[in-house]
Design a protein that fits this description.
By secondary structure, the protein is an alpha/beta fold. It has 15 helices and 6 strands. β1 and β2 form a beta hairpin.
Length: about 400
């Protein structure tokens, strides 16, 4: 019998996680809808299921978002209904909300049974009946001994009758609302015209990633408490730039990737840099560029933002550029050149790598780590024939073949 407890805990945690994710995702959906008509608004999320949207004239919209299992009903004694009422009643009683400039929206995946309080407070004018809803709420309190809802009942009764009616007059219950997957589809529909159709999923994923981090900053109190229309519009503009035909999106987390250097010690490209004779710090930089370029390019390929043929063409272009630099520097070596002179030539070639003057993968995708990292990716492959030391082939054979044997 006791074995059911851990399972129940897992389901509770999963439901809570889905609820938070729904709140964040639905907040983005509301923000995008408002972006269609203007920028003069701001939105905030609280560490619960609250969303607040403030419009230009000072009008405020207060949302409660409830994500429940399929088939759940929003009954008259539902905790979701009464918890939302408690939050709003207390805010009104404490003068935190001005009813004259407020609207309240309970969005839930639960169904509103016919004739229920929830159905009486829907947006359907034919079934909406605020006085009857108020009467039914009072009747629930009279007939109930629920401890779970006790604080909500007290908050409701703490308002005078006229204030209760005024609150209900500004309350809409949107039952049978979209679930978390449905909201994702709504986001895609909102953004379909922002980029090429084949790129919408990747575009939405990056927008949601930024939005999620921004909301976490709000929850933690480490960032501004509101996201403005101007802020969202500016981010969308920057994001669209990365999806232009002559560009590629460089993800925000990529420049901060830091590799575990020990994991790359035996990589061919690390041996290549070591042959040049540079310090450990520059070797670490090479590993970092390699990891960042490898990770970003892999994402582009996985999301079909770039095709393998384009990568192949780009690598052939890099090899051709490398060949000009390598041959020019190697030709400057006299017969019987000393080790010091060979090392100097290797450093000249490697300086070209670090300066990243080779062409970018696309004209406007100019992050230098992508050029450097792509060159290191070539240097990591035997078949590319790319290296930095004028005698890199022979020296790598001497270094690597004994280990392979």
């Amino acid at each position: 019998m006791t074995s059911s407890t851990p399972t129940s805990g897992v389901f509770d945690a999963s439901a809570a996680a889905a609820g938070y994710a729904m709140q964040i995702r639905y907040g983005l959906y509301e923000a995008l809808k408002r972006l269609r008509v203007g920028l003069d608004w701001q939105i905030s999320l609280e560490a619960g299921d609250d969303i607040e949207v403030q419009d230009a004239p000072g009008y405020a919209n207060y949302f409660q978002i409830k994500h429940r299992a399929e088939g759940t009903n929003l009954t008259d004694a539902s905790v979701d209904l009464w918890k939302s009422l408690r939050i709003w009643c207390q805010a009104v009683a404490d003068s935190q909300i001005d009813l004259a400039t407020a609207s309240f929206i309970l969005v839930t995946t639960s169904q509103a049974p016919s004739g229920s309080i929830a159905s009486l407070l829907s947006s359907d004018l034919e079934s909406r009946d605020v006085p009857e809803a108020a009467r039914r709420l009072d009747a629930v309190i009279e007939a109930s001994d629920s401890r779970t809802n006790a604080k909500a009942y007290a908050a409701w009764l703490g308002l005078d009758v006229d204030t209760r009616r005024a609150l209900l007059g500004r309350l809409t219950i949107a039952a049978s609302g979209p679930d978390i997957d449905d909201v994702h589809e709504l986001l895609i529909a909102e953004l379909t015209l922002s980029v090429r159709r084949a790129q919408v999923d990747a575009f939405v994923a990056r927008l949601e990633g930024w939005w999620f981090q921004r909301c976490i900053g709000i929850f933690r109190g480490t960032q501004a408490a509101f996201i403005s229309g101007e802020e969202l519009d500016a981010y969308l503009g920057d994001l669209r730039e990365g999806f232009l035909p002559e560009n590629l999106p460089v993800d925000a987390d990529i420049p901060s990737l830091e590799p575990a250097l020990d994991a790359f010690t035996d990589h061919r490209f690390v041996r290549q840099v070591d042959l040049v004779g540079v310090g450990k710090s520059r070797i670490a930089s090479a590993v970092r560029d390699y990891l960042r370029a490898y990770t970003q390019r892999s994402r582009w390929t996985r999301e079909s933002l770039i095709i393998p043929d384009e990568i192949d063409r780009y690598e052939r272009q890099l090899i051709e550029e490398w060949r000009y630099v390598f041959d020019r520097c190697a030709d400057s070596l006299p017969d019987g050149a000393s080790e010091a002179l060979k090392s100097e030539v290797a450093k000249q070639i490697y300086q070209w790598v670090e300066e990243a003057t080779a062409p970018p993968i696309r004209d406007r995708c100019t992050e230098r780590f992508l050029v450097r990292g792509s060159l290191h990716m070539l240097a990591d492959r035997v078949e590319s024939g790319v290296g930095w030391h004028p005698e890199f082939t022979a020296r790598l054979i001497a270094l690597l073949e004994p280990a392979e044997i």
